[in-house]
Design a protein that fits this description.
The structure is a homodimer of 379-residue chains.
Chain A: E1 5-9, H1 13-25, E2 28-33, E3 46-49, H2 55-62, E4 67-70, H3 77-85, H4 94-101, H5 103-112, E5 120-123, H6 126-135, E6 141-145, E7 155-158, E8 174-178, E9 182-192, E10 198-200, E11 204-209, E12 212-218, H7 225-241, E13 246-255, E14 260-266, H8 276-279, H9 284-292, E15 306-313, H10 321-330, E16 335-338, E17 348-356, H11 359-374
Parallel strand pairs in A: 1-2, 1-4, 2-3
Antiparallel strand pairs in A: 5-8, 6-7, 6-8, 9-10, 9-11, 9-13, 11-12, 12-15, 13-14, 15-17, 16-17
Helix pairs in contact in A: 1-9, 3-4, 4-5
Chain lengths: 379, 379
């Protein structure tokens, strides 16, 4: 058989779940992981332990792979270009991926292709932040380092010029954005293949707690059909214009005046798409693998009227196994996804999916399980 | 975290799919495989290469496992008893498993607990076969070696005393059975945990071609509700009486006069349960893992009105990858499960699942994909 080898850089839970999705596809899956204890490294057969920032390590890893893809966006662009020059397909490629690595590049490109974003500008210093505030409705202003942020890290909401000093200390360029008056956050997830086939998942509502995704509801309840279609088309258009291959998550603000503005882009399977593992005909992970191999994509439509994903965060108690038994006994329909990670307070260690016809029931079951596993619910 | 380690003996596709189901459960999965090329050995992180017939190998493998379970029924009973004496939970245990290893023991036990079987008797030689035939409706008679058969191997349908010589050549005891006048074959699949919780999947129709499972339809079309319930209760009762832990497949004949008779038992995930991977709320593999760990079992109910599984057998052309692309493009809802095995004519190398509301459509899609992959359909 000539079934191909997919190499994935990064040993986190996204790689773990991509491997899981790759098993039925019959592909061989190779992993480059920081340590043998990483989430994906525990479950993959072919694991190379090494540093993705080292080009020689990447080159050695890429040997024998038919395509390289990613669990995260941190591989340096020049290394990806070197792999491409070696003849290894890198998907998404460096010219696309830079838009998920650098928020300044992303904003400039979205402006150029006419995609609506929050008002924004690269700022040089606190005085420049004050000027940016004055050009709009004043403070608060959102400041973001253009590179290296995730899950609320590298993001500040500042109320004054005094508070604006902190983000500049790292010496990384800083992007200022208006604080959008949004009613909720949405995500439009699409998958695109090298030959240009693309599929769109239904637009979901993403609820954040302290900058970390907490709950995702698929599809977004009560979302106007035209606005949903507009968001899906926007995500498909971004994928095409930026040359994305694989899964693209477009995180959106739904504004009080009925528009959607792009918040962030991620070019890999994404937390807002975890519901697809149990809630869609084809999961985001399976479609990501199919896309990077240029296989025909699978049907992205939902299997249930409502699917809810709730993240399981670490709590104060390190052993989740007894809580786990309780949750399984309480709800035999619950779909639990554990990542094999040590429990640390606030760390994402798993997620649960629930689905059904009654949104209140589906939400309650997901939230109860996630809260019980974390230890914030005890009955 | 104190998530447990499941050790599985045997590197075939059942272990591969059990590992896949174990990943979201967060358990560690250890494999004892004959070779590194075996289906499961390609995708599992912790693989021990060794011979399951060697007790020292089994003991070394079992060290650090919280439970031992099986991809096949071939581990010698005395080795399993030795592991149990070492304090390793073996699930299913040797006293249960012997009923899936030895058809003579199985028939005697089912007789004792009043489960209806085809008329049967252990026979000593061809003359004894002739006597057995005369006691009933004459030839044909089915002869089976009591140990070692699978997928039609070790089974003969003989029309005369002359033909009855062959099965005795291996020197293994031979079981004679009446050739049942059945209208179709069914399977009743159940899962049972050590503390006695049990779940029953809907009874399915299993269509065989040349002694090998070809297509499974879930649920069995047009099956009388009372008969379905009777079959489920029979399977649950067998699981309880025999002390089965894990998945039990009860293969059944549905007779022309409206009864069900037990054909075979398998105490592991089974081909007749592959449809559950995409068609049930909880798959047989996930429930097998939950059972052997004594975790609460998951909901076995179907997610679609009809689910069809079709086995992909090897054909004359060794490279399935281009056929694979065609099938994905033709049917974006198709669920393909490839086992990573080299293609040999007639060898099970994968299966496909389809589901939906219209049985004719669901059947056509599954059969087309399986036939196209094998090469018997070319358009």
């Amino acid at each position: 058989m000539t079934f191909p080898v997919v190499g994935m850089v990064g040993g986190g839970q996204l790689a773990r779940m991509t491997h899981e999705a790759g098993i039925p596809l019959g592909i061989r899956f190779k992993l480059l992981s920081d340590t043998p204890q990483d989430s994906a490294a525990q479950v993959v057969n072919e694991v190379v332990i090494g540093d993705y920032r080292d080009l020689d390590t990447l080159r050695e890893f890429a040997r024998g792979c038919d395509v390289i893809t990613f669990d995260h966006e941190h591989v340096p662009t020049e290394h990806l270009k070197a792999l491409e020059a070696d003849g290894i397909p890198v998907r998404p490629g460096p010219d696309a991926l830079v838009h998920a690595q650098d928020k300044g590049v992303m904003r400039a490109r979205l402006d150029a292709i006419g995609v609506p974003c929050p008002r924004h500008r690269i700022v040089r210093d606190p005085a420049d932040v004050a000027a940016f505030a004055q050009e709009g409705d004043g403070f608060p202003v959102v400041l973001k380092t253009v590179r290296g942020g995730y899950d609320g890290k590298g993001v500040w909401v500042v109320d004054s010029v005094e508070e604006a000093a902190e983000p500049f200390r790292a010496g990384v360029p800083v992007l200022a954005e208006e604080k959008v008056d949004f009613v909720r956050e949405l995500a439009a997830n699409v998958v695109r293949s090298p030959h240009g086939q693309a599929v769109a998942y239904p637009v979901v509502e993403s609820q954040q707690v302290k900058g970390v995704c907490d709950t995702v509801i698929a599809p977004a309840p009560g979302l106007d059909e035209d606005l949903a279609l507009h968001a899906e088309e926007m995500a498909l258009s971004i994928a095409k214009e930026l040359g994305v291959v694989g899964h693209l998550a477009v995180e959106l603000f739904q504004t009080r005046d009925g528009r959607v503005l792009v918040n962030e882009l991620a070019m890999r399977p994404h937390n807002s798409g975890h519901w697809t593992m149990d809630g869609a005909i084809t999961s985001q992970f399976a479609n990501h693998v199919r896309a990077v191999l240029d296989l025909p994509l699978g049907d992205p439509r939902p299997r249930a009227k409502w699917t809810v994903m709730a993240n399981v965060l670490g709590g104060d108690y390190p052993d989740m196994y007894s809580a786990y038994l309780h949750c399984m006994a309480r709800d035999p329909q619950l779909k639990i996804h554990m990542y094999g990670k040590d429990v640390k307070p606030g760390r994402k260690v798993g997620h649960v999916n629930t689905y059904g016809d009654d949104l209140d029931d589906v939400l309650e079951r997901a939230r109860h399980a996630a809260g019980y596993l974390r230890g914030t619910i005890t009955e």
